[in-house]
Amino acid sequence: MKTLFMEPRRCATTTGMTVSIDLGQTDGGAPALLDLEELLATRLLVQGNSGSGKSHLLRRLLEGSAAWVQQAVIDPEGDFVTLAERYGHLVIDGAAHSEAGLQLAAERIRQHRVSVVLDLEGLDTEGQMRRAAAFLGGLFDVDRSHWTPMLVVVDEAQLFAPMAAGEVADEARKVSLGAMTNLMCRGRKRGLAGIIATQRLAKLAKNVAAEASNFLMGRTFLDIDMARAADLLGMEKRQAEMFRDLRQGHFMALGPALARRPLPVRIGPVQTESRGAAPKLTPLPAQPLEDARAIILQPPAPEAPRPRRTPPPPPPDILAQLAAARPTPPPTALPPPSPEAEAAQRRRLEAVMRQVLADPESGYRPVPVLYQDFLVRCRIEQLGSKLPDLVAFRRLLAIAKAGVPAEVAESADWAEATARAATLPDDLQGVFLLLAQAALTGAPCPSDAAIARAYGTRSASRARRALGFIEEQGAIVTRPDLTGRRIVTIAGAGWETAPGHPEAEAAA
């Protein structure tokens, strides 16, 4: 009897309501259920040779849990990008972004709870390892306020957590292995549930594999892999031979989220197709040899060179996609306010913003929390119903955090600075304006602590990454003076800060 795909369902238990994902059927015909909430606390390891149905299993799990939990897929072969069409995953081309850009993107993904597929197909092994490590680092280092549950699926995990050094640079291997170890060993506290899949258990670092408490073991043939699989499932060595006899799509399941004893499971069908499916056998065309020779060996025309494949355009920024999805407010027929009224309203809004930022902890609170505080204070001041939306509030907040003097705020140079800041992502505009304000007034370059406060974090390393990303976008140029103090130049405008110590304390 054909197994039908079942959507995730809530199953009543003695401890309350739990979310269970239907993976398929057991040998006895009962549904093979995976406890999603238990999985978030205990992690999963999937093993199977090429063609065993490992990627099919991951796809079934991702499809069944897409409605319940945020997902991130590290995809070295581009197999899972088809999830975007049906389940709305954001696809990020890893080859089109730098490591710093991917790290910032990962932080924003957790802040906005967007499910994502990181496609690494266009990179060599070392490039895949470095970008995957940067992306996992961004997921791991996000502020505590964004530690919400997230499934992190890493396909072909032996590439990112190898047992031994290979042909890649040792630095790349250490960075990638460290990121995978953080995911599996320390990710649970941060809401990250690692799901790693590998073709070869013997090639996967033991300290990464050992952190998984749930296992789905598929077909494998090498003795060393069968022995490790049997050991992880608590089976005797003489039983390891059974892994050779497993059919495609059949796995042995064990773990608190699956079964208390090794349980044979047959994975059910999926709703999306993989781009990595093996080609089917097709008959060769019936064509005379001489005709084939004439077609294949025909010299190219000199005026028609062989076309080159052009790379696809880079995907838009995550925040830009979210902003594009925001509904456009209906037009109003009210007459526009006079310039004097606009100026008075702006001064009152700036006064309210100063009240919000008067709290020393305001620089480290999430923007939505500050926005709610801002709206409440505006209503107390009776500023009317036409208040800034969240996007406009981010711009006002960035200008206020820069602490620009009144005489500078009225200048044409400051208008140019705000226009330049608008080309950067919202969360980086405050950092840019802080640097621009220092450059326009001839003040020392802000310290890492001051930049971190403008960025909304206490982490100096995140502040330095933000500074590096702004420079990567061509908005600024940083250089040290002879004593090691930092100088920042606003690119295109020529404004330059005085030298400043990066490790100086931030002003309260």
UniProtKB/TrEMBL annotation:
<feature type="domain" description="Helicase HerA central">
    <location>
        <begin position="26"/>
        <end position="88"/>
    </location>
</feature>
<feature type="region of interest" description="Disordered">
    <location>
        <begin position="299"/>
        <end position="321"/>
    </location>
</feature>
<dbReference type="InterPro" id="IPR014588">
    <property type="entry name" value="ATPase_Atu1862_pred"/>
</dbReference>
<dbReference type="InterPro" id="IPR027417">
    <property type="entry name" value="P-loop_NTPase"/>
</dbReference>
<feature type="compositionally biased region" description="Pro residues">
    <location>
        <begin position="299"/>
        <end position="317"/>
    </location>
</feature>
<dbReference type="InterPro" id="IPR008571">
    <property type="entry name" value="HerA-like"/>
</dbReference>
<protein>
    <recommendedName>
        <fullName>Helicase HerA central domain-containing protein</fullName>
    </recommendedName>
</protein>
<dbReference type="InterPro" id="IPR002789">
    <property type="entry name" value="HerA_central"/>
</dbReference>
<feature type="region of interest" description="Disordered">
    <location>
        <begin position="326"/>
        <end position="345"/>
    </location>
</feature>
<feature type="compositionally biased region" description="Pro residues">
    <location>
        <begin position="327"/>
        <end position="339"/>
    </location>
</feature>
<dbReference type="Pfam" id="PF01935">
    <property type="entry name" value="DUF87"/>
</dbReference>
